[in-house]
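All the exercises in this workshop are built on plain-text protein records. A learned vocabulary of local backbone shapes supplies the integers on the structure line. Once this layout is familiar, the rest of the handout is easier to follow. An example says more than a description, so a record of this kind follows:
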Amino acid sequence: MIPVAIDPAVFAIAVAGRGGAALRRLGALRTGGAAHTLVFSDQPDEALWGAAGQALRPRLPTPRDMADLRVLWIVGLPDDLSARLAAQARGARVLVNVEDQPALCDFHSVAEIRRGDLLLTVSTSGASPGLAARIRARLEVQFGPEWAGRLALLRGHRATWRRDRRGPAEIIALTDALLHANGWLA
């Protein structure tokens, strides 16, 4: 697996699914900044309608829909339907993830911790989501909410150092010195 972070402002993203699984995936994507995620559901419940609002399409994606997408998460659908949609997505050159079916995935969703712009992820390449969740829980304790502010402070210093025309090696050394002086990674 090759880890990447996708900018949702650049790529058209969608969820196709049903029930709580679709609702959870939509929530995770929106937490990651994917405010314009489309939601396709042939059986939308009240909670999904409420969360998706205008982004809800009360059907599954068509080949025409696929042509406009770049990334698709498939969740909460029967295996045969998931496999068919995954094949359609690949045919349209859309990256696809089918929850709990690694063989149908072009990529795997990671266990994540968000602290402002700090994003920590754990992946087992789909081998053990349970292990990834346990490691994520440990990282949540080690990297608490205070890290959002710490990163914001580092961002400000880095901007100043770059304006002062400091080179990459010097910026790394200054970052290390700031981390050490505050005991943040001690």
Q: What stands out?
A: The longest strand covers residues 13-17. The longest helix spans residues 146-163.
